[in-house]
Amino acid sequence: MSAKLARREHRTAWLFLAPLVLVMLTVAVWPLGRTVFFSFTDAYLDDPTVYGLVGISNFIEVINDPAWWSAVRNTLTFAVLSVGIETLLGLGIALLLNEAIPGRGLLRAAILVPWAIPVVVATKIWEWMLNDQFGVFNRILISLGLIDHGIAWTASSSLIMGVVIFIDVWMTTPFMVLLILAGLQTIPGEMMEAAEVDGIPAWKRFWSITLPLLKPAIGVAVLFRSLDAIRMFDLAYVLAASNQNVMTVSIYARDRLISFQELGVGSAASTWVFLLVALVAIILIGVLRLDRSTGD
Amino acid sequence: MAPGALVTSPVRIKRRSSAHYRMRRQIRRGGLGILILLVLAYTLFPYYWAIVSSTKQGAELYTTAFLPALNFGYYRQLFDNPVFMGSLVNSVFVATGTTVVSLALGIISAYALGRLDFPQKRIVLMAILMISIFPQVAVLSGMFELINALGLYNRPSALIVTYLLSTVPFTTWILTTFIREFPRELEEAALIDGCSHFRILTRILLPLMGPSLASTGILAFILAWNEFLFALTFMLTDENKTVPVAIGLIGGTTRYEYPFGQIMAASVTVTLPLIIVVLIFQRRIVAGLTAGAVKG
Amino acid sequence: MASIALSSVTKAYGTHTVIRGVDLQIADGEFVVFVGPSGCGKSTLLRIVAGLVPASSGQVLIDGEDVTDVPASKRGVAFVFQSYALYPHMSVERNIGFALETLRIGKEAIRSKVETVARMLKVDHLLERRPRELSGGQRQRVAIGRALVREPEIFLFDEPLSNLDSDLRMEMRIEIARLHEDIKTTMVYVTHDQAEAMTLADRIVVLNQGSIEQVGTPLELYQAPANRFVAGFIGSPRMNFGPVPLGAEAGGFSLPDDLVAHHTSPGSRQPASIGIRPEALSLVAPDAGRMSGVLERVEDLGHEHFAYIRLADQSIWVVRVAGRPPFERRNQPVGLSFADADIFVFDSEGKRMAHRATVPQAGREASEGGLVHER
After folding, report:
1. Which of B74, B136, B137 is the mutation pick for testing A, counting most A CBs within 10 A?
2. Angle, in degrees to the nearest 10, between helices A211-230 and B282-294
3. CATH code for C228-374?
4. How far is B4 from chain C, CA to nearest CA, in Å?
């Protein structure tokens, strides 16, 4: 291609991208920049035009707040446990769906149901099922003789984190299943047959062939899900808005910002959340890259 | 080649009777069948229970009858409730608007990213990916200011603007992978005939991309339909709220007077159409979800 | 080493039957090739032997032992795939030795076995590489090595050479033949390439639509095909067929009286068609032959020629001519000549009538002898 023709194609490309760039500048870059800017001010939400620059004192105020650190702890606990459980469960279900057995088509369709249900709705449904007096979950446990009286799953401060993780696992395992299943389907069938004919036992086929070849797919799924889990807001908010035990960093930041109207401090908290997500993203991508370079 | 060089310690395989393996295979099949049933129950029972509960009136609701009572009183109440119907209308408006705008932006950008050559392509793709992992809370203060500046606070159309933050990178990314899968020959012939890129996109690619647009559109619609944080923050009054927020904020005077029947009816109402569409477009949706992630 | 026996093996996917009652005995140390057009079920049959596909009914026996329900991993067979099916994340060394890892024979023993096999297959300098760093031929050698290192009782090959280009295919064909001579293990080999079948096989099994058409040595199939299908499938270019009698409109040929008499004597079966191999025909002057037609086209391969003759009924017959063709201009009338002994006669069901041996054989050796050498 001649240089002139190439240059014309570059121009066309940017012309096509112009609307995207414009929109992204407006709804992503600009708001993010303003959030960072407000972090350095003492502005309040009722009138953001009145402010003074206060340096990094807002950032310091946030990290001196024990509630923030409890939110960080909650968020990380939630992210690690729910993503971990989802990955294992998702891997198991994906392997099950990869078997040629009756009912697999039905299950593959059914798995989309929890995925399509809005977080708020799923939370409400589980809240109802886990209701201490009338919830079907407690009823079943009682009738099985496992407990004497209903457990207050969503009211107890020691159980609530478990409940949040449990509901999240229910909602997001399908995503894991679909990604891992897509990874499984890229493994050539003849290769697994070769291992089978060669007398390799099933566990070794899984451990030495399937798992190493699934690593990239699992890695991508874990990355997406982890970043999602760290910014989680709706599930914990709907289930227990004011419960300290499940307050995530997103809920903390929004509370400071909207409920307390502290635009400056809230923005600083938001910026911390952004940095936290970025940090986790960098770490995870680094780990994945590392695997890729040694893995094959 | 050295004949016989190998015949040192032939590998002998212990083989049991055919009947032994036949039984083992049957046990395995049975086990897998039970697993499929368990996973089916796990994924489907909560939604089924929501449907059952939504048709039980009064005291019936608190019994553990597993069959629906088919009493549609809650639904009638729901449809007679102007506030709920209003939020349903808002949700449809917001989700549809978001979908249309993000598809339009996505397809134009995807053409440049999937088909045209320009040096900064990788950077643009990375930027899109980065924006898609932005925590919403990080742009909350800036977005608040933007909405106010546009004069859209407490108006449903504000949500369309804010939702573009997550839907546009998403549709762009998926449509780019879809466009790359189309054979180039079609357009090359048109290019030789002197067609402009815009004409190629609208006259040649667009008519072929119906299924891809449908699946991407459904995914964007679901994303917008389910969004909670922005909808909660930017809509002040009840008549402007979207459905997830409306459901999330239904409450009784005390925890024990929770109107679970109505909540379940509302939950079923807002998810059933979604689930039906998802099941109809099952294959395409899975293709879209995994296309977006596997290339990441 | 082991023998294989299949008895009334069938395979159906839903209502679609792929294998229809196959009976077959394969002796210990034999090299058997399954051939047939694509979709004839040859690969499925091989997979049933391996245990990768369960038979719908019937029995599979290895060394007289019923293994119908024994899983592939316990059958003691080795399988070489068309796609090679190497493990992409393992080195060549680990690919070959992987199956030995489960045997608890020690790292040293594994290593020495892998090295022996690698040397045999001339891949010992590649042990550290990954499969994607190898050429197609090298991958195929590694795949064979992976099978070989286990010293299996039975070797199964599923079109192992069809992804290679023709030079390499020839080379690997010779190596596989030599491998079989050396280790004398029972081998079953699936291919659609008749040159591979003719050169490698002790016996060939011709499959068509899930049934065996004929089992025999390569020469038996060539000289005495059981039916029209086998006659048409073995030999290249394929045999020319025509209805009986060919009559004036097809070039004026009719069966010689003694052949007719011979074939009609058993009773009800009547000759329905005849076949003559391209190499049994020769081109002569228009009025000197037993049939006549118009020269439609000549394909010059240098050492031989294929002449395409359009007969009066518009069917096209091929004549294979060594050296220069006698006629070179298109649309010229030509005559076809052939010996009675080279006529194959088929009944209305396509079965060949009378054994070839009952017909005088004079004049046949020359043409076929030459053919076998060329292959």
Report:
1. B137
2. 90
3. 2.40.50.140
4. 7
With contact defined as 3+ CB pairs under 8 Å, the chains touching A are B, C
B29 touches chain C (CB under 8 A): no
What would the two tokens of residue C233 be?
């499938």
* Residue contact A125–B161, C-beta within 8 A: no
Alpha helices in C121-240 (DSSP H): 136-148, 166-183, 194-200, 218-223, 228-233
Q: Does B33 touch chain A (CB under 8 A)?
A: yes
For domain C4-223, the CATH superfamily is: P-loop containing nucleotide triphosphate hydrolases (3.40.50.300)
Q: Specify the pLDDT at position A170.
A: 94
- Give me chain A's average pLDDT, please: 86
The residues, any chain, with a CB within 8 Å of residue A182's CB and separated by 6 or more, are A217, B286, B290, B293, B294
Contact between chains at C70 and B15 (C-beta distance less than 8 A) = yes
Over residues B90-149, the pLDDT tens digits come to 999 999 999 999 999 999 998 888 888 788 888 888 888 888 888 888 888 888 888 888
Contacts of C5 in chain B (CB under 8 A): none
- For residue B34, the one-letter residue type is I
Residue A23 has pLDDT above 50, yes or no: yes
Report pLDDT digits (tens) over C78-112. Answer: 999 988 889 999 999 999 989 888 887 888 888 98
Position C374 pLDDT exceeds 60: no
Q: How far apart are the first and last CA of chain C?
A: 30
- pLDDT for res C325: 64
Q: Which two tokens stand for residue C27?
A: 């002796």
User: What single DSSP character describes residue A159?
Assistant: T
CB B116 within 8 A of CB A9: yes
Instruction: Name every chain B residue with its beta carbon within 8 A of the beta carbon of C69.
Output: 18-19, 21-22, 25
Nearest in space to C74 (alpha carbons), one of C60, C89, C91: C60
What domains, with CATH codes, occur in chain A?
A: 66-262+273-295 (1.10.3720.10)
What residues does CATH 3.40.50.300 cover in chain C?
A: 4-223
Alpha carbon separation from A192 to B135, B268, C46, C114 (Å, rounded): 41, 43, 17, 21
Residue B251 has pLDDT above 80, yes or no: no
What residues pair up with A258 in beta bridges, in sequence order? Answer: none
What is the pTM for the complete model shown? 0.85
Q: Which of B45, B107, B125, B141 should one mutate to test binding to chain A, selecting the residue with the greatest count of A CBs within 10 A? A: B141
ipTM of the complex: 0.86
Tell me the CB-side half-sphere exposure of residue A223, using CA atoms within 13 A.
25
On the question of pLDDT at C369 being above 60, the answer is: no
Within 8 A of C97 by CB-CB distance, chain A residues are none
pLDDT of residue C364: 39
By C-alpha distance, which of C32, C20, C44 is closest to C221?
C32
- State yes or no: pLDDT of B280 exceeds 80: yes
